[in-house]
Amino acid sequence: MSNYRPLVAHEILDALENISDDEDNRERMICILPPHVDPDCPNDEDSGEEDNVTLNNLPRNILLQPAEVSIQGQVSVSDTEEEPSDSTGRTKRRRTYAWRKRDLAKNPVNWPDVQGACQDKRPIEWFENFLDEDVISLLVSESNKYAVKKNLPGDITTEDMKCFIGILLLLKKKECGTLDYRTTHDNTFIIAKWHDNNIFSIASNAVGINPKQSAKRFSQSEKRNIVIEEPHMVAIYNKYMGGVDRSDENISHCRIVIRGKKWYMPLLTHMIDLAKHNAWQLYKINHGKLDHLGFRRSTATALIESNKKNAKRGPSRPSQHEHADSRKDQINHLVIPQSKQTRCRQCHKKCLTRCKKCDVGVCVKCFETYHS
């Protein structure tokens, strides 16, 4: 049932005034419902003369009452119209369905036959049904506009775009171990592209692709490890990989991620990542056992614990690893007296001294042992 809102008297009067005399000359009669009268409030319903009432001096409570228009010669549709909603409104009636577990009735369906001879079409012709010349021309046009915007020559042609699409379709479809390489005319520089788990591009002026070596890779199609040929220049690169390449790879695994609108924020975060990576390399040279992520967490914990402002909190059981890094940095650890006796974190005896930085109770005898 649709929502029904009856028109009020002033809306009907405005609509009738906007109708010109030439449009419709039929007689209209407006029926205004009586206003609601509160029995507890005084009213002046008998104070005026009802015979001299005009449309220009109707009171506000009359103009806001629901009204109906009766037009001479109009067919009554009261039997088919929906009943007007009362002041409280009616809930929308929901249609209920009786579901039955049965199949649809079998009606004959005449499916249209395929028009034309399609058996002799090549794969490219099927592909061009979806990526036609109009789409290619649009890609070329928008690519040239973008190139001009970046101060680059916008000389892409339709043939170039089709070749580019073909390269995208062929990309990473070669089997693992595929190798392609080119050398300069004087045979002093070589560029190679080797298909590993990803496309591996490398250039060298010192070593070539021979002698090739064997490498194990997992084949997704065969679901087992297979042996492929690895170029000599790739093996040498992996063997002596270090410095900038190793740094970029390790930093990419654990990078500071922060959204900043300032141009210098990426420079600052990369400087911090680079300093942390170099420190980890020195830590490994000195036979450190932590991995990259563990070293990062240990450094962050030490920085926070050594420089945070300790908030007052209630008594709790001390942790064995509390201040594990900051208490051994030998920076601003001073013995200060305290008014109340607390347990020493080292010998667990009552003491009247504490460490100013660690904010824990430590007796004078155990102060050096606790911070070393």
UniProtKB/TrEMBL annotation:
Give positions of region: Disordered.
71-95, 305-330
**Ranges of Basic and acidic residues composition bias in the record:** 319-330
A GO molecular function for this record? sequence-specific DNA binding
Start and end residues of each PiggyBac transposable element-derived protein domain: 123-170, 171-280
* InterPro entries for the chain: PGBD, PiggyBac_TE-derived
Tell me the PANTHER family matching this sequence: DDE_TNP_1_7 DOMAIN-CONTAINING PROTEIN, PHORBOL-ESTER_DAG-TYPE DOMAIN-CONTAINING PROTEIN
Name of the protein this chain belongs to: PiggyBac transposable element-derived protein domain-containing protein
* Organism of this sequence: Euphydryas editha (Edith's checkerspot)
